[in-house]
Amino acid sequence: MGTSVRLPARLERLLSRIAKERGATKSEVIRNVLTVLEKEDQKVRGAATPYQAMKHLIGCASGGPSDLSTETGKKFREMLLRQRTA
């Protein structure tokens, strides 16, 4: 199916240069670029939320103190004091 696209002169020159360097037609270059964009779009849509992107990592660590989330400020302060005195 045919599609017409109006490009600014700068993009037209870029398209012509890329097509010439690759020995491809302008249509082939445009199809390749759209294929790359399609793959990127699928990745983004596949991980709609930060949770979905990281859910396989949540809860995968074991060991360490059980009070890390409640003692964060205290532990961080202690670490900074140790570094200053070292």
Show the helix and strand layout.
Layout: H1 9-22, H2 26-46, H3 50-54, H4 72-85
Helix pairs in contact: 1-2
Tally the beta strands. Answer: 0
Overall geometry comes to elongated
Overall pLDDT, averaged?
A: 86
Helix count equals 4
Radius of gyration: 26 Å
The proportion of strand residues reads under 5%
Report the end-to-end length measured between terminal Cα atoms.
70 Å
| Secondary-structure element order, N to C | HHHH
Unreliable residue runs: none
How many strands, what sense, and barrel or not for the largest sheet?
none
> Structural class of the secondary structure composition?
mainly alpha
Provide the helix percentage: 55-70%
Please describe the structure with a list of short key phrases separated by commas or semicolons.
86 residues, mainly alpha, 63% helix
Overall description:
Helices cover 63% and strands 0% of the residues. It has 86 residues and is an all-alpha fold. It has a domain at 7-58. The chain is built from four helices and no strands. The chain is elongated. It has helices spanning 9-22, 26-46, 50-54, 72-85. The model has no long low-confidence stretch (mean pLDDT 86).
